[in-house]
Amino acid sequence: GYDAGQWLPYATAGVSQLNITDSGTELEDDGYVYGIGTDYAWSDSWTVGAEVLKHEYEDFAGSGDDIDMTSVAVRASFNF
Q1: List of long-range contacts for 43-46, beta carbons under 8 Å, 24+ apart
Q2: What strand order describes the sheet that includes 67-78?
Q3: What sign has the CA pseudo-torsion 29, 30, 32, 33?
Q4: pLDDT per residue over 40-73, tens digit each?
Q5: In 1-80, beta strands by DSSP E
Q6: Kind of pairing between the strands at 25-41 and 7-22
């Protein structure tokens, strides 16, 4: 991330795996994930943050279908 005082914005990217069970058949494939987020130092003890990730699987398990998902997370952390 980038140190911007009380704010810590960041970008992330990586590889992911999706497993689906459909009518007793297990399907799995690899894809990729990328996103952005930020943390904010509310105080010396508390940090709050948020993150948005995009998950993409092209031609999932050879089906010809593309699967795209977006996840959003909001968190609070207590720092010891």
Answers
A1: 44/79, 45/78, 45/79, 46/76, 46/77, 46/78, 46/79
A2: 7-22, 25-41, 46-57, 67-78
A3: positive
A4: 999 999 999 999 999 999 998 888 889 999 999 9
A5: 7-22, 25-41, 46-57, 67-78
A6: antiparallel
